[in-house]
Structure formats: C-alpha cells, structure tokens
Amino acid sequence: MLDESRQGAGDDDPQHVGSFRFFFDSQTWEWSDEVARLHGYEPGEVTPTTELLATHKHPDDRDEFEKMVRDMLVHRTPFSSRHRIIDKAGRTRHVTVVAQPMLDEGGVAIGTEGFYLDMTEMHTEALREVDRHIDQFRKTQSVIEQAKGMIMLVYSVSDDRAFEVLRWRSQTSNTKLHVICANIVTASSSVTMSGPTRGQFDQLLLSSHLPLDEVADTN
User: Fold this and answer.
1) Which of 99, 141, 158, 189 could form a disulfide with 78 if both were Cys (CB 3.0 to 4.6 A apart)?
2) Which of the given ranges, 7-11, 84-88, 96-100, 201-205, has the highest pLDDT on average?
3) Each residue of 94-107: pLDDT tens digit?
4) How many whole angstroms separate alpha carbon 187 and alpha carbon 190?
C-alpha cells in the first residue's frame, strides 16, 4: 500500500484521485486506498497484480491494457491511458491514468508511478449533454416535419418542394429554419379552416383505413 503522503492531489479529493506504483523487475503493483476503492475493494482486501487489473478492465479496453503493460516492460517506460474499468460490484467507471518514470539513485528507471483520475461523473454529464442535444434535434426535426406537412396540405406540393419553401423563407429572412417552422406550427392554431375544406378533410380522416382508390371513390 502506498504512503498517503505521496498522493498529492488525492488528498483534496480522495474519492476521485488515487496513486499507484509499478516495479519493473518484480512486476509488482502498489496502489493507494483510493485506487483500491475505485476497483470496489476495501484497503488491504486484495493485493494488486497485473492479472487482477486486467480482469477489471472493460472487455473492449482489455487488449489495449495488456499491450500497454508489455510495451512498458520491454521499453521500461511509463504509460498514460484513458479507459474503462469495471469494479467489484459490476459498475463501469471511466478513468484517466497518468504516470511518470520512477528512478533509482543512479537515475535508472526501476518502475513507474502516477495516479488514477475517476472521470465517471464528468463522462456521465457529457453523455447527458449529448442526450440533451439529441432530444433538441428530435424536437427540431419534429417541428420541421409538422411545418412541411402543413405546406404540403395547403399548397398541394411535394415533401421536397415544401422544404424548399421553408428553406427559402429562412434564408430571405435570415432566421433559423427551426424558428420559422416553430412559428408556423404555433401560429397555425389561430388559422380557421373553411367549411368545405374541413368537410373534405373530415371525409379523408374517416376513410383513411381504406385503400387509396376506394378513398378517391368516396370523395
């Protein structure tokens, strides 16, 4: 187990930052209490090994980790990585690992030492932000489709031509397309449909379960 005085930034936020060491010749690992907890263990519960660490890597990241360890042993260089681990309880955590050479008194590299940074909360927030953008995109697309449908109905034009009309209005007024469409959809509630037109649409709605040729015969 590492001396807590060597953890540096980990003292400020022990739940998210923890330190480690790896010795080349003995291929042994040491980790701080925070790194143990990051993997789901209580301090001193297990002895960290390369094999144990590999089992906690996300399956999609495990091969890269094993290659990184092999390269580290061959070249005796530190490694830095951003990957996912799966803790003892099965929870996926996103971590960044940053390391530097660990030198003996003669300046020879005998291992590597550094820290784990738990990025899970930041990653989760990033995913939420992506979800918000996707949701906004869907809403934008929905209102565009509604506005296109209105133009297609009123002017008896195709889907592409209706979109051209909306895009033209957006460009000539220097207004974003989704704003134009949202305004049309919102304002359409105040538009009154004439009696004959409403009657035609009523008939269309009531016969919408029929094949198109039969619908034509009923009108």
Assistant:
1) 99
2) 84-88
3) 998 988 899 988 88
4) 6
